[in-house]
Amino acid sequence: MTMIRQATQQDMTAICRIDAIVLGNTSRSQELGESVAAGDCYVAYLDTDIIGFVVMNQSFFKQSFIQHLIVHPQYQNQGIGEDLMLHMEAVCTREKLFTSTNLSNKRMQRLCHKLHYVQSGIIDNLDPGDPEVIFCKQIRRRLPKTYPSKVQTI
Fold first, then answer.
1. Cα separation of 83 and 2, whole Å?
2. Which domains does the chain possess?
3. What is the mean pLDDT of the chain?
């Protein structure tokens, strides 16, 4: 079972390693460190191995926004990204939760649709030739008080 907890400074090496594997470089290391320090980053782990992470903050027009969702390639397509998204929905304090992905990232778009996020717009000119697709989910009005989850939180 996937375990999820708030990231700590001790997790930074693993977080940055996974990000570099997926992204292909270490350009976000400082940004990720700031997210961990701010309490905006959560890690998914099995046993003692961190296998993915998610960053949620209020950077998108003061709305809750999942800025990064990264799963180690070895653990992709096993529901870890879904677990992380569901956890963010459970801890989100706002009525709406936004995220975005490139138009070319069909895997993330499928996950958003599976979790009932709706497309809320497209932003051109961020990545040349690959528009950013914005997704939103109303979460506070439709969720019961006890949100069922297969994720075990510590």
1. 7
2. 3-153 (3.40.630.30)
3. 92
